[in-house]
UniProtKB/TrEMBL annotation:
SUPFAM superfamilies given in the database record: beta and beta-prime subunits of DNA dependent RNA-polymerase (SSF64484)
InterPro entries: RNA_pol_asu, RNA_pol_N, RNA_pol_Rpb1_1, RNA_pol_Rpb1_3, RNA_pol_Rpb1_3_sf, RNA_pol_Rpb1_4, RNA_pol_Rpb1_5, RNA_pol_Rpb1_clamp_domain
Location of the protein in the cell: Nucleus
Single Gene Ontology MF annotation: DNA binding
SMART domains: RPOLA_N
Species in which this protein is naturally found: Coemansia brasiliensis
Functional summary from the UniProt entry: DNA-dependent RNA polymerase catalyzes the transcription of DNA into RNA using the four ribonucleoside triphosphates as substrates. Largest and catalytic core component of RNA polymerase III which synthesizes small RNAs, such as 5S rRNA and tRNAs. Forms the polymerase active center together with the second largest subunit. A single-stranded DNA template strand of the promoter is positioned within the central active site cleft of Pol III.
Subunit structure: Component of the RNA polymerase III (Pol III) complex consisting of 17 subunits.
Enzyme nomenclature, EC number: 2.7.7.6
Protein family (similarity comment): Belongs to the RNA polymerase beta' chain family.
NCBIfam families, alphabetized: PRK08566.1
This protein's record includes keyword Nucleotide-binding: no
Domain (RNA polymerase N-terminal): residue spans on this chain: 245-547
Protein name per its UniProtKB record: DNA-directed RNA polymerase subunit
Length: 1048
């Protein structure tokens, strides 16, 4: 007869349920009962004792032994469990709070949950509703607990119940008569001891203590066994997998020997903490069982019982509050300590682990490296290898590497044959034969070579840019080197920092690292889309100095400097000089223009117009006296100097971000590489340093500073007199003293700011600290002020220095003195030196900064870790909603607008219309024959285009409105311009023109043009007249009319 066909369809796991193991489960899993405290037999073989905590049936920790249970050696035996049968139950420390909660909910006589029958049925019905989630269940269980806390008399048996609380380490007490309603019962209870107290008055104190009864583990265990299954449901427990009596130990599991190995040392063995604690538990259990059998005193039994509970609790968690500390050596490590924390099993060995093919050493700067390169020491490159597969294209190359061996770079360390899987180490005697036998399909573990993809990482890894993919370049010496432009994402400096290097071992990993983690693809931060890789410090200073107005070079100097930027194979078109007479000179701005676009064949045409760091509003920005308004047209620097806002990181107005946005990552990275090489070499030749003369104030500066300080002192003295005479007007919500402190703090804080402004005005243009503060490469006006003029008011905890002695800050001052010098104002500068009192005040302020840095680093680090662990399963779905791993919606639309900050062109805007318009206008060539549009035609075409499906289906109405409004402004400006030149503005569609796309009939120039009047300042009028006087030919008459009538 033919057997029926068994269809074994794949099964799907529906859910995983965790439960508390019962004593029966523990015994079933175990191989042996442990009841002997001894570890080894007292013989020469030093063999483990049977039924001891190192019983051979529990597994082995010695590579020479064989497991008595499974017969395997140490590498194959996974270990086996044992158990210890306790003579009395003890509390499980992990469930101690749960035990307290359950005891509070149940009657201490009948074990019933103390709810009225109607409430009981209501809660059970709601808990058994299908589809109820964990949060709802938790809320219902809390409601049961809250109601039971208020019950004094059990509704089922009428017994008195009080508050259950912790009475010490692993002790629970029941304060039965704590409620006011039980006062009469408490008096009755005390009367039963009247005769005994009369006979012995000292018993009165003991009777007072006996009002709270101790809930011993045995009593709690018996109460929990009597709890019904329905009552378990009311308390949120599953009666099948987690009954309350399982929350107490009656049978302790003994883990395998392999997780608590013995370490041989000096002919003896050093035992693990768990082994020692298990031996202690076995011995205490034996003493307690023996005492119970022989009828020991109650005090002795209770003492041993408490000690047994404490030993088992420390076996689980050695940080039990109130437990005795280790007498000698370090504290023991229980199971909890082995699992939790940074060094625990999860974070230390599973989530994070030590890996092969990695290196670590000190980092150094190298501006000659490309931003996507990292210099790897040759010594490291010989150790880190990449398994390259032998193909017909590389077999001869790999044979040469095999012949070179592991000691010469580039070489190879091992060869693995595809046929046998055997791996051969390339010792000198077999290299030639192995090279000859090399076949297609074999794998050669060659040294790291130039161009290999490596991962570069600096800890702490706080964001995704803390680890990026670089291209290796093998160099001599002992440090990793990379371009300083990449310091910001790593938060690296070169004062001894170390970084990690990882080598991907497959082609898939290399490609994935290059595409997802490559430096080129991570030039901007995903936080807000701002560039995070850019020029820093010396590079910014050099860019600023080169682009100053007075920088000129002859042809040989100009060509030499330009050659710093490029490789030897780059074609460079030298522009005509900007000054012809009396000699041909090129400016520093022309160097930057060549850096942006080296030749006419280059398609990179950067267009940028922005204010730099030191810009102050003037009527005509192009003519800013400080040359602080930057204009770049088609990669030609027209005016302005480069500073941190233009070439640094963190600004979307930087040249690199504009290049990235308009021409891609490769061009942006190339510009950074050119600027880095130019800056490093120009600085070496030109020189830039700080000396004592740079911080030496002149006589005029000193006089202005002294006048400023004396004026502030006089103002402060006036406020002090007003406060003492009661004439000082108090600020809202502040006392007179608080008002005085706030007012004086404001006055003295302004002194440093004003002194900084004076320094910026008085110091020469070639002052090094001033140059660095102006261009933003390092420091600020406040730092310059502290070095040159005055250090200023010292603030501690948001206020002036508080009194450290009786009514004064230091013994040097009079009591109750509130003068600036007595409360932390430092009038001297670092150049002139600080008085002793000023030095103490400055040190107090500096210490606060150090403490804040240390404390906030730890706090913010832990805060970020908690946020990361909470949000790590969130992801954006195809409907733009943000959901967690369970599919629960966290946010209906990502960010509220579905915009990726990484891709935004502007501050909170996906597209910068103004920049794109100017860029297109400057780069697109318009044919003379092409028809010009009137303003109303521009509006018509834009409106018609925005109604097409390609816009309606893929963009929001808000974005379409923004596009239309921008083009509408352009059309309005065009109409105004036409009107200013006396043409028909065509701002509205002419009457009679049915088709707006048709060209309107333009009338000739009006006899009397409509002009827009200019509003010129006294400084602008001569400039405009001089400019227009240079106009010749057919435009001379128009220029004269402009001068005479001030027409646009």
């Amino acid at each position: 007869m033919k057997e029926p066909v068994l269809v074994q369809a794949p099964k799907q796991i529906q859910y995983i349920q965790f439960g508390v193991p019962s004593p029966r489960d523990i015994r079933q899993v175990a191989e042996v009962e442990i009841n002997d405290r001894d570890l080894y037999k007292p013989d020469q073989d030093h063999r483990p004792v049977e039924h001891g905590v190192l019983d051979p049936r529990l597994g082995i920790s010695n590579k020479n032994d064989t497991c008595k249970t499974c017969g395997q050696n140490m590498s194959d035996c996974v270990g086996h469990w044992g158990f210890i049968e306790l003579c009395v139950p003890v509390f499980h420390y992990g469930y101690f709070k749960t035990i307290q909660t359950i005891l509070q909910n149940i009657c201490k006589k009948c074990s019933r949950v103390m709810l009225e029958e109607t409430d009981r049925r209501t809660f059970l019905r709601r808990l058994r509703m299908p589809g109820i989630d964990g949060l709802q269940t938790r809320a219902l269980v809390k409601g049961v607990n809250d109601r039971c806390k208020k019950v004094t008399y059990c509704p089922h048996c009428g017994d008195t119940n009080g508050v259950v609380k912790k009475g010490g380490p692993l002790k629970i007490v029941h304060d039965k008569y704590r409620q006011k309603r039980t006062a009469e019962e408490q008096d009755e209870y005390r009367k039963t001891f009247t005769n005994a107290i009369d006979a012995d008055p000292q018993l009165k104190l003991l009777v007072a203590k006996t009002q709270s009864e101790e809930m011993t583990p045995l009593r709690v265990y018996n109460l929990f066994k009597n709890i019904s299954d329905e009552d378990c449901e009311l308390m949120g427990l599953n009666p099948k997998s987690g009954r309350p009596e399982l929350f107490l130990w009656t049978c302790v599991p003994v883990p395998p020997v392999c997780i608590r190995p013995s370490v041989a040392q000096d002919g003896a063995s050093n035992e693990d903490d768990l082994t020692v604690k298990l031996s202690e538990i076995v011995f205490t259990n034996y003493i307690l069982s023996k005492g119970l059998a022989q009828g020991s005193s109650a005090a002795n039994v209770m003492e041993q019982w408490d000690y047994l509970g404490l030993a088992i609790a420390m076996y689980i968690n050695s940080d039990v509050p109130g437990a005795p500390l280790a007498v000698v050596g370090k504290p023991i490590r229980g199971f909890t300590q082995r699992l939790k924390g940074k060094q625990g099993r999860f974070r230390g060995n599973l989530s994070g682990k030590r890996v092969d093919f990695s290196g670590r050493t000190v980092i150094s700067p190298d501006p000659n490296m490309r931003i996507d390169e990292v210099a790897v020491p040759e010594r490291v490159a010989k150790i880190l290898t990449y398994p390259e597969l032998v193909t017909p294209h590389n077999i001869e190359h790999l044979r040469e590497l095999v012949r070179r061996g592991p000691d010469v770079h580039p070489g190879a360390n091992t060869v693995q044959y595809a046929s046998s899987g055997q791996k051969r180490v390339l010792i000198k005697s077999i290299r030639d034969s192995v090279a000859r036998q090399l076949r297609i399909g074999d794998t050669v573990e060659r040294h790291l070579i130039n161009g290999d993809v490596v991962l570069f990482n600096r800890q702490p890894s706080l964001h995704r840019l803390s680890i990026m993919a670089h291209s290796a370049r093998i160099m001599p010496w002992r440090t990793f080197r990379f371009n300083e432009c990449v310091c910001t994402p790593y938060n690296a400096d070169f004062d001894g920092d170390e970084m990690n290097l990882h080598v991907p071992q497959t082609e898939e990993a290399r490609i994935e690292a290059r595409e997802l983690m490559g430096v080129h693809n991570n030039l901007v931060t995903p936080r807000n889309g701002e560039p995070i890789i850019g020029a820093t410090q010396d590079f910014v200073t050099t860019a600023y100095l080169i682009t100053q107005k007075e920088r000129f070079y002859d042809r040989s100097q100009f060509v030499q400097i330009v050659s710093y930027c490029f490789d030897a194979d780059t074609h460079i078109d030298i522009p005509p000089p900007c000054i012809v007479k009396p000699r041909r000179l090129w400016s520093g701005k022309q160097i930057i223009s060549i850096l942006l676009r080296p030749n006419k064949a280059c398609k990179t045409k950067i267009n940028l117009e922005t204010k730099t760091k030191s810009y102050k509003k003037v009527p005509i920005p192009d003519l800013c006296p400080k040359d602080a308004y930057l204009i770049i047209r088609n990669s030609e620097l027209m005016c302005g100097t480069l500073d941190k806002s233009v070439v640094g990181d963190g600004k979307k107005t930087s040249i690199f971000f504009v290049a990235l946005r308009d021409y891609g990552t490769t061009e942006a990275a190339a510009l950074m590489n050119r600027l880095a090489k130019l800056s490093a070499r120009w600085s070496c030749n030109q020189g830039f340093s700080i000396g004592l003369s740079d911080v030496m104030p002149g006589k005029k500066l000193r006089n202005r500073k002294d006048d400023l300080i004396q004026s502030a002192y006089a103002e402060c003295d006036n406020y002090i007199l007003q406060s003492r005479s009661g004439k000082l007007e108090t600020l809202p919500g502040r006392s007179v003293e608080e008002t005085l402190e706030a007012t004086i703090s404001r006055v003295l804080s302004e002194v440093r700011d004003k002194a900084g402004t004076i320094c910026m005005e008085e110091l020469g243009p070639y002052n090094a600290p001033l140059i660095m503060a102006t261009c933003g490469s390092k420091g600020s006006a406040v730092n310059v002020c502290q070095m040159v003029a005055c250090v200023g008011q010292q603030i501690v905890s948001g206020s002036r220095i508080r009194d450290g002695f009786t009514d004064r800050t230091l013994p040097h001052f009079l009591k109750l003195s509130r003068t600036p010098m007595a409360k932390g104002f430092v009038a001297n500068s670092f150049y002139s030196g600080l008085y002793p009192t000023e030095f103490i005040f400055h040190a107090a302020s500096g210490r606060e900064g150090l403490v804040d840095a240390a404390v906030k680093t730890a706090e913010t680090g832990y805060m970020q870790r908690r946020l990361v662990k909470a949000f790590e399963d969130l992801r954006v779905h195809y409907d733009s909603s943000v959901r967690n791993s369970a599919g629960t919606i966290v946010q209906f639309e990502y960010g509220g607008d579905s915009l990726d900050p990484y891709c935004l062109e502007g501050e909170g805007k996906p597209v910068i219309f103004e920049h794109n318009w100017k860029h297109i206008r400057n780069t697109v060539d318009v044919s003379p024959q092409e028809e010009r549009l009137a303003p109303f035609q521009v509006r018509f075409i834009v409106e018609k285009s925005l109604k097409e499906p390609r816009f309606v289906n893929w963009t929001t109405e808000y974005w379409r409105d923004e596009v239309y409004n921008f083009m509408d402004k352009l059309a309005s400006r065009l109409a105004e311009l036409r009107q200013a030149y006396g043409l028909e503005p065509f701002d509205e569609q002419p009457a009679g023109l049915l088709d707006p796309a048709a060209k309107p009939k333009t009338r000739g120039r009006k006899s009397k043009p409509m002009a827009a009047t200019l509003s010129l300042t006294k400084e602008e009028q001569p400039i405009l007249e001089w400019s227009l006087s240079k106009v010749d030919g057919k435009h001379a008459r128009l220029a004269q009319r402009v001068i005479d009538n001030k027409l646009l």
